[in-house]
Each structure stands twice: as structure tokens, then as C-alpha cells.
Write a structure and sequence with these properties.
755 residues; alpha+beta; FAD/NAD(P)-binding domain; Gyrase A, domain 2; 6-stranded mixed β-sheet; 33 strands; globular; disordered C terminus
Length: 755
């Protein structure tokens, strides 16, 4: 029984329920009166409702572990207790697992899985090179009572997220605990030896905030006799997600950690997908949200972890509003423009610990840290600000700080760099010097391991850019396929270059005013790159592309010149109405243009043929990773299709918004989930992107030769479920023809200033 005290919590539960129903989970919305009938012992006076899942159950962690161990033994596995792992040994110049040194001797092995729970981080350090496993332990409290007379042994597990608590029956009594707002990190240096079964001392003062809520929700606790206040360690990751996958520092070293008490529930699934990862080199579902490659080295910093987990614990039961940023461990990676943008009213988010301006609040200009985001399930507080930024990108010219994008240089003495990239990329990289190529790097099944842009600077010298979230993942993929003879070098130059996106109809004139080359389309073509001067700054790599469909340029600037370049553009752009924009404006622009983004719309399970990027695949260029799989899809069809939906009868001001992850229905049948959703300011409709499949009775997507035809059949009626309310939606598989909006029609162009 999951309880809600507020309307916003009910929205959260109804969003979860909408997805749970697509998996066949039995669950129902219940009123306070129905909750009282099902759980007479609960105080329901302050409840707005809840969700009841009658098939939910309970198990004890030690029992699960013993059963798994016994089943493993029956299948030939040897289980040894009381054995200390000292270190993992490697072999080869490119480190690969070879053996494990233990207190009982050395074990030769080809693969190693670090599933050591809260000890996983320290175990990761016992190898050379070290394997970062970012997690940190906190004290975790729950109370156990003696048997309580009249307590129903079939009492449902009670989750009162608004009260930060959970309650369930245990041996005739109760076990109750929770996740307090500010946790107490422990083991700031290292975990003491032989701490496997130890506990911390009781701390009733710290537990009091949870105990008050337990007493409030279950009044009979006032008369219960306490057996023990348990205070033990639980480990948490920087984003409270699991850590799964192969290390980027040692081949065949896998990690399965960060589960804390959820391991009881998730253990079976984690074991299945880790086995697939080892045998097939990838899991059968997309696990990017839990992939170890979503971190960079600073996430494993002990000081950072100690700060972040204090906040993480408090967020476990808090309302999971969309786009809420962490407050701890901030301002770690900042661009050269960060301080300047702070003073202009920027609200910053972070990705891979990199600060990015999400939107600008002009009324807060000059007031650092004063811009506030009020979380909501509906129209966000930044809506009008982002609308103005969107308008400026469409009508005038905007600057967007894109320094967080990951950047790599690939070079060789001979033609090795070109041959290497041709094998990794599905598009044809063998283009003229100065050409920029958008391409995917596919895996063996055709899925995206990387989505990037590659500029050819010289015959054997390439510059690659990709989303910030790809920094570790892209580096891992690139290094994993390097020639063993060392003929190709890959260098991560993310911190060496700042990035400024110059976007809008006056971008060409503005850049032309501050550089000594022609920026006319005939001289500076789309998807080309030139090294230029901007103002007094030299060595700027300018590319004519924007990632949103608008005309413009991305300038990759040596970091020491970034502030000068920015100021030069701002001064020269006054006559063009230049302004700043953030990532939310980009998101609205690219969603409306039906542009997919890696990590949201693209992952290792989606292919170019499925997301409308088959035109970027050159099957006739020669062999490349994933070529056979993509050829099969071209010949026989695909299992899913990327679709753009426009919602009908949607009130952008009053209705709950879609934020991604909403179920999609076709003629009443579930066909997929949304991936990205944003309001289309030109279309004047809510836009949702997502994949659809025709699932059979077993829930498997069917292969379709003519998937486009099936998606767009005249009798196909689509709906998108937002927290239990279904909106009719118009489907499209091509970029819409954007009619000129009212504000574009009334716009009077600014005259171009003569040089």
C-alpha cells in the first residue's frame, strides 16, 4: 500500500501506475476510505489516496542469499565463506583480468565481477589500474518491535513517501524505518576490518524525525514494545542508481553494485543481465541509466561522495519532480563562461558534473544563485523565459554555451585514423578535409554506442564531438577498438576547448562581422569546418551546424580565448538583438524538429533504421561494426519505429505535462513509451517523441518489413497516457513542415550593420 498525502504525490503514483499496467502488474488507485478498509490500523485522516498492489510480497535478505547460494551449488558453483579478496591481477599491455589474489590463495579467472556491496569501492581500488566504483555508506535506521496483539500478519507493506517511512509486519511485530532528509555518512576514510555483521550505536535523536511519522501513521506504535533500534550501513551512488557493466579501465572487470536493500528485489534481474553482458558483450535491455560509464573520475572522489549521499538519501522518498537538480557537489566542472553567465541570470543544471545554463531569468540579472526553479508536474516556471529564448533563436541570434560536449582528437601518422573511424562509424568518414559528418558508432546488433559529429581537419587528423554524457562511454568504445600496434592515437580534449553555439537567422552576419573570412553559405557551407579568428582570438574551430535545424555555427574555442570570444560576439551582436539561450530552448527546438538525442531517444538498443537515420548509414562503403545487422534490417524490416506525436486537446497551461516515459497506445493497445517531450512553440502543440512496436501476446515486438506503413495506417488511432488520462495524438515519422508562427510573421528584421 503506497500512500499519498498530496495531489502531487497522487500524480507521481498515477504516473507509476500507468507504466506498471503496461507490464501487467495488478495495482489500483484507492481512496482514503478504501485504504482504511484494507488497513484499519492506519491513520488515514491526512491522505489524498494511494495505490494498492495486492500481489506484492516480502522476503528476508539473508534467506534470499542462502537460497541463491544453494541453487548455485546445485549447478556446480563452489561457494566459500570467510575469504578476503586482496586484489585483482591483470595481464597484457591493455589491462585484462587474469586472476584474483585472496586470503586462501590465487584464483585464475577470465572474468571478475565486483558485487561487494558497500565494499565495492574499496575493492575497485585493489587493482592496477584502479576501477572507480562511486558509492559511499550512510547510517540507515529501522525499528523492530516485539509481537503486537491484534496485528494482522497479512498487513500490507506500507510506504508513506511523504512521511519518508516504510512499515511492515515482522514475526508478529513491526519493522519500520525510512530515509531521513539529511543522512549521516560513515566510513569517511575506509570501512573497518571485520565489519561484515556489525552495527552502529543507537541514535534516537537522529531517528526521531522518522519515529514521529511512524507514530502518526500507525497509532498502535504508541503502545508497542521496542525490541531494537537498528542502525546499520547502507551504501548509495551519486544518483541513487545501480552501477552495472564493464569497467573502462580493465577489460573483463565487471561491476554490479549500488543496490543497497533493493538488491533483494533486483538481484535476480541483475544476475541475468550481468551474465548476458559477459557472454553476449551487452545486456538484452537498455541499462544506460545504470551503466558504470555514466560517471567520470571525479564522481569517485571521497569528499564529493560524502557530500552527495547526504542529499541522495533524502531524495529517495521525495517527490521525483522532473528536471530537479542536485544541490551538493556542484560547480565542479565549469566552462570559462560560467561566472559571466551566472551574472546574467542563468539557471544551471549539471550533467557529468559539468555546469550548463538551462535557461536565463532576465529579472535576476546580476543576482548570482537567485534564479529558482519551482518543481511541478505541469507547466514549468521557466516556460515564458524559454519561450523568449526560442523566439530569439528563430528570429534573431542567440549564444548557447555548449562547452560540456565531449571532444576527442583521433590521429595517426599514416591512414590508420581514417581506417579506424571507417570501421567504427556507419556513415562515410572519407570526405574532403574540412567536412563534418554526423554519424553513429554502432554495436554488432546495429544499436548506437555513440552518436557524434566528426570533422576531418587533415588527412589523418579528426575532431569528434558528442554529448557530455558520452564522455566515458565514448572513450571506452574508442580505446576498446584501437589497433594494438599503437598506430592510432585517441585523446580526450574536452577541457581544452569551450563551445559556443551561434544560432539564428543573423548568425551568419554576426560571425562575419568578427572574423576575416566570408560566412556566406556559398563560401562556408553547411556541415563544414574552418579554423578561424574571432576578434583577437585564434585557432577557433568553427562548424556550420547547430543540432536543432536552425542555421548557425558551433565554435570550438581554445579555453583561454573563450571569454574574449564570447564578449566579442556580444558586443558585435547588439545591432542584431543578440541574447543568451540555454539547453531547454535547444530541447524545444530539436524536439519540434524531430531530432533524436543520445541517452534520451537513442541508446544501444536503437538503430539508425529505426530512428529515421538510415540516410546516415553507408552500407556500400565497406565493412564496419554493425553493418550486417543494419543490412538485415534494411532487407527484412525493423521491430520498432521512432515517431513524433502531437497531442490534441492539450492545455499547456492547465494540464499535467508529459516528461518522458509515458505509455503510448495504438487503437487501445500498448505499443511503447515516450522518450522526450517538449512544447512546440511554432506548432503550438505539445510534442512527444517515442518508439512504437507491434507486440505479440508474449510481449515481444514483431518484425515488420513495412513498419512506416503500419505506423501511419489511416485507421491507427494513438493515445498517450499522462498520469491516467489519455490524450489523442497525431503521429508523424518525418520532420514536420513548420508553419511561420504569429510572432515570426510580425517580426521586423533588424537591418544588417555595414562593416
Amino acid at each position: 500500500m503506497t500512500l499519498a498525502r498530496t495531489k502531487d504525490r497522487m500524480v507521481d503514483l498515477q504516473r507509476r501506475l500507468a507504466v506498471a499496467k503496461t507490464h501487467g502488474t495488478e495495482a489500483y488507485v484507492v481512496t482514503p476510505a478504501e485504504i482504511k478498509k484494507l488497513c484499519p490500523l492506519i491513520n488515514t485522516e491526512d491522505l489524498a489516496g494511494g495505490i494498492y498492489a495486492p500481489s506484492d510480497g516480502k522476503v528476508m535478505g539473508p534467506d534470499v542469499a542462502l537460497v541463491f547460494a544453494e541453487l548455485a551449488k546445485q549447478n556446480g558453483v563452489k561457494v566459500f565463506e570467510g575469504v578476503r579478496v586482496d586484489r585483482v591481477l591483470t595481464k597484457n599491455k591493455s589491462p585484462r583480468v587474469s586472476s584474483v589474489e585472496t586470503s586462501h590463495g590465487t584464483i585464475q579467472c577470465e572474468y571478475f565481477v565486483n558485487c561487494a556491496g558497500q565494499w565495492a569501492r574499496e575493492l575497485g581500488k585493489r587493482s592496477e589500474p584502479k576501477v572507480p566504483v562511486p558509492l559511499h555508506s550512510c547510517e540507515h535506521f529501522n525499528i523492530v518491535t516485539k509481537p503486537i496483539e491484534g496485528l494482522d500478519s497479512m498487513l500490507p507493506g506500507i510506504y508513506d513517501y511523504d512521511g519518508m517511512i516504510y512499515i511492515r509486519e515482522l514475526n508478529g511485530g513491526l519493522l519500520a524505518g525510512g530515509f531521513e532528509p539529511v543522512a549521516k555518512p560513515v566510513f569517511r576514510r575506509e570501512i573497518p576490518k571485520k565489519f561484515e555483521f556489525q552495527l552502529f550505536t543507537e541514535d534516537w535523536d537522529h531517528f526521531q524525525i522518522l519515529f514521529n511519522e511512524i507514530l502518526h501513521r500507525l497509532p498502535l506504535m504508541h503502545d508497542a514494545k521496542v525490541r531494537q533500534l537498528i542502525n546499520g550501513p547502507e551504501s548509495f551512488t551519486p544518483d541513487d542508481r545501480l552501477i552495472l557493466g564493464e569497467s573502462d579501465t580493465i577489460s573483463n572487470y565487471f561491476v554490479a553494485a549500488g543496490m543497497n536493500s533493493r538488491g533483494i528485489v533486483l538481484g535476480g534481474g541483475v544476475g541475468k543481465y550481468m551474465a548476458e553482458w559477459i557472454i553476449d558483450r551487452k545486456p538484452s535491455i537498455d541499462l544506460w541509466a545504470d551503466d558504470i560509464h555514466r560517471f567520470v573520475s571525479l564522481h569517485n572522489n571521497k569528499q564529493f561522495l560524502g557530500q552527495r549521499v547526504k542529499e541522495i538519501v533524502g531524495r529517495i522518498y521525495s517527490l521525483p519532480y522532473p528536471l530537479v537538480e542536485y544541490t551538493t557537489g556542484r560547480k565542479l566542472r565549469t566552462s570559462a563562461l560560467h561566472t559571466r553567465l551566472e551574472g546574467l541570470g542563468a539557471y544551471f543544471g549539471e550533467t557529468m558534473a559539468y555546469e550548463r545554463a538551462m535557461w536565463f531569468s532576465p529579472q535576476n540579472e546580476g543576482m548570482v544563485d537567485e534564479v529558482v526553479y519551482v518543481p511541478t508536474w505541469g507547466k514549468p516556471s521557466w516556460f515564458e523565459s524559454v519561450q523568449e529564448e526560442y523566439r530569439a533563436c528563430k528570429e534573431r541570434v542567440c549564444l548557447i554555451d555548449m562547452s560540456s560536449f565531449a571532444k576527442f582528437e583521433i590521429k595517426s601518422t599514416g591512414q590508420g585514423a581514417l581506417e579506424y573511424l571507417q570501421y567504427l562509424c556507419s556513415n562515410d568518414i572519407d570526405q574532403d578535409i574540412g567536412t563534418v559528418v554526423h554519424t553513429g558508432m554502432q554495436n554488432e546488433t546495429g544499436g548506437f554506442e555513440n552518436d557524434c559529429s566528426i570533422a576531418r581537419l587533415q588527412d589523418n587528423y579528426f575532431f569528434m564531438i558528442c554529448p557530455a554524457t558520452q564522455q566515458t562511454r565514448a572513450s571506452f568504445w574508442l580505446r576498446q577498438h584501437l589497433p594494438e600496434d599503437g598506430s592510432v592515437q585517441v585523446r580526450d580534449v574536452t577541457s581544452m576547448y569551450s563551445g559556443i553555439n551561434l544560432i539564428g537567422p543573423h548568425a551568419q552576419q554576426l560571425l562575419g562581422d568578427v572574423t576575416d573570412i566570408s560566412t556566406d553559405r556559398s563560401d562556408f557551407k553547411v556541415m563544414t569546418c574552418k579554423e578561424i579568428d574571432v576578434g583577437c582570438a585564434s585557432g577557433v574551430r568553427a562548424m556550420r551546424l547547430t543540432h536543432t535545424g536552425e542555421d548557425g555555427f558551433i565554435l570550438y574555442i581554445p579555453a583561454e580565448y573563450a571569454l574574449h570570444t564570447y564578449d566579442t560576439l556580444i558586443r558585435a551582436g547588439k545591432d542584431y538583438g543578440v541574447s543568451n539561450a540555454g539547453y531547454f530552448a535547444m530541447r524545444h527546438l530539436r524536439t519540434e524538429q524531430f531530432f533524436a538525442y543520445w541517452g534520451l531517444d537513442l541508446n544501444s538498443r536503437t538503430t539508425p533504421m529505426e530512428c529515421g537515420r538510415e540516410f546516415r548509414v553507408k552500407l556500400d562503403k565497406g565493412d564496419f561494426i554493425g553493418r550486417n545487422a543494419l543490412q538485415q534490417q534494411k532487407t527484412h524490416g525493423i521491430h520498432q519505429k521512432f515517431v513524433q506525436f502531437l497531442l490534441d486537446d492539450f492545455d499547456v497551461h492547465g494540464d499535467l505535462w508529459p516528461w518522458g516515459g509515458e505509455p503510448i497506445y495504438r487503437n487501445g493497445k500498448y505499443v511503447g513509451l515516450t522518450t522526450t517531450c517538449s512544447y512546440g512553440f511554432t506548432l503550438d502543440q505539445m510534442v512527444c517523441l517515442g518508439y512504437v512496436s507491434d507486440f505479440d501476446e508474449d510481449g515481444k515486438p514483431q518484425l515488420k518489413k513495412y513498419m512506416n506503413k503500419w505506423v501511419m495506417e489511416k485507421d491507427a488511432q494513438y493515445e498517450i497516457d499522462i498520469a491516467g488520462r489519455k490524450y489523442t495524438a497525431k503521429a508523424g515519422i518525418y520532420t514536420p513542415k513548420l508553419a511561420m508562427s504569429s510572432f515570426e510573421a510580425s517580426f521586423i528584421p533588424v537591418p544588417v550593420q555595414q562593416k
